[in-house]
Design a protein that fits this description.
Blueprint (H helix, E strand, L loop, with lengths): L3 E4 L2 E3 L9 E3 L2 H9 L3 E4 L6 H9 L3 E4 L16 H4 L7 H16 L4 E4 L1 H9 L4 E2 L2 H4 L17 E5 L4 H6 L3 E4 L6 E2 L6 E6 L5 E6 L1 H6 L3 E4 L3 H4 L4 H16 L3
Parallel strand pairs: 1-4, 1-5, 5-6, 6-13
Antiparallel strand pairs: 2-3, 7-10, 8-9, 8-11, 11-12, 12-13
Bound molecules: manganese (II) ion.
Length: 251
């Protein structure tokens, strides 16, 4: 049987997409899972902890998708109005829903693949910090917000030797797309940066050696492999490795 993979959806307020609050998932995420041999299923619009726990208990893996910015006060106590005004925040329910999803997924050691906003939110969930506004807080020579070229590799990332990502990428460098306004600053305890852009921005994380022994399969990436997987095999391999881990996970 193909592994069942929970996918975190985008949330739209009443009147934005439909008359009621609604969820949606970009087809590229679903295709990435389907082509790798998994069955993607979207989490419903729910914050009830028990429902999220029951959903995770029946899943073989969890995919956190991309989205808008994360509420800054979730990881920083003092946030100026000027800094806050640079953010285009996601639906507040989404932060709560995904934080619960992340905690439950790790508690049960269910494999997790976290993309873009997901990569950042995992870092927040585990006690790491983010750049709230990358252009003003960490100005560098890499352009990280290239939405018009979201289906192309626009900047390289350098990959840590000995990491899972190095194996999947087939080398120490990978070309990635980049459509983010925020970024990981300090990786959370238990996580290590395994890829960085030329300006030092963290583009992927895995468990450190100690945490890896105690946890399930985990990879997070700041880029969008689901948009590159159809044309660049290295990006498709990230989905294959994730789905393989879901299939193999002890139950
Ligand atoms: Mn980037």
């Amino acid at each position: 049987m193909r592994p069942l993979i929970l996918v975190s959806p985008s949330i739209a307020a009443a009147g934005v997409e439909m008359p009621d609050p609604s969820i949606s998932v970009a087809g590229a995420y679903l295709d990435g899972i389907l082509k790798a041999g998994g069955i993607p299923v979207s989490l419903p619009l729910v914050t009830e902890l028990e429902a999220i726990a029951d959903a995770v208990a029946q899943a073989d893996g969890v995919l956190l998708t991309g989205g808008e910015d994360i509420e800054p006060t979730l990881h920083r106590s003092e946030v100026s109005e000027a800094l806050r005004s640079t953010c285009f925040l996601d639906h507040p329910m989404r932060d709560a829903m995904e934080l619960a999803l992340i905690r439950e997924t790790f508690r049960r050691r269910v494999p997790m693949f976290a993309i873009c906003r997901g990569h950042q939110l995992v870092n927040v969930a585990l006690g790491g910090s983010l750049y709230i506004d990358l252009p003003s807080e960490a100005p560098g020579n890499v352009q990280h917000n290239q939405v018009a070229r979201r289906f192309e590799a626009v900047h390289p990332v350098r990959i840590e030797p000995g990491s899972l990502l190095e194996t999947l990428a087939g080398g120490s460098e990978l070309g990635v797309n980049s459509t983010h306004h925020q970024a990981v600053n300090q990786p959370a305890p238990g996580l290590r940066a395994v890829a960085r852009a030329d300006d030092g921005i963290v583009e992927a994380m895995e468990w450190d050696a100690t945490a890896a022994a105690a946890n399930g399969w985990f990879l997070s990436v700041q880029f969008h492999p689901e948009r590159l997987a159809p044309t660049l095999p290295a990006h498709a391999r990230l989905f294959s490795a994730f789905v393989d881990a879901c299939r193999a996970r002890p139950r």
